[in-house]
Amino acid sequence: xxxxxxxxxxxxxxxxxxxxxxxxxxxxxxxxxxxxxxxxxxxxxxxxxxxxxxxxxxxxxxxxxxxxxxxxxxxxxxxxxxxxxxxxxxxxxxxxxxxxxxxxxxxxxxxxxxxxxxxxxxxxxxxxxxxxxxxxxxxxxxxxxxxxxxxxxxxxxxxxxxxxxx
Length: 166
Description:
Elements: H1 17-41, H2 48-59, H3 68-89, H4 93-109, H5 115-127, H6 131-152
Helix pairs in contact: 1-2, 1-6, 2-5, 2-6, 3-4, 3-5, 3-6, 4-5
Protein name: HPP family protein
Organism: Kitasatospora viridis
InterPro entries: HPP, TM_HPP
C-alpha cells in the first residue's frame, strides 16, 4: 500500500522558521497581556490551560479545537462543570479527576471540544474557586486570546488567517 494511503490530511502551518517565531511571539504577547491585565485588575487572568490555548491559537490556528467558539466555549463549559463538581465533592483530587472527565464529555456533547479546557475544570475544583470573579475573568481572558489570534492573522507576510471558522 502506498505510504500516503493512511495519512490523514493535517491542517498545519507551512514549515518556515518565521511561522514558529511569529507563533511564539504572539503567544508570549497574549500571555503577557493576560498577566498585565491581571495585575491591573488585582486578579490573576493567566491560568495554565490558557497557555495551552494560546499555543493552539497561534501554533495550530486551523485546527477545529483552536477556533474561537471552542476556545471560549470549551473553557466556560469546563469551568461550569468544575463549579458543579466542586459543589458536590468539595476540594478533592477525586473530584478534580471526575471534573476533568465530565468536562470532556460535556464539551463533546456541546460540540465545543478544546482539550486545554478540561484542565480548567480541574483547577476550579482544586483551588476551590469562586464563580464570581472566576467565570467573568475566564471569559475575558479567552476572548482576549481569540482577539489576539485574529489580529495576528491580519499581520505580516507569513500571516495565517485566524479563525478558520467562528
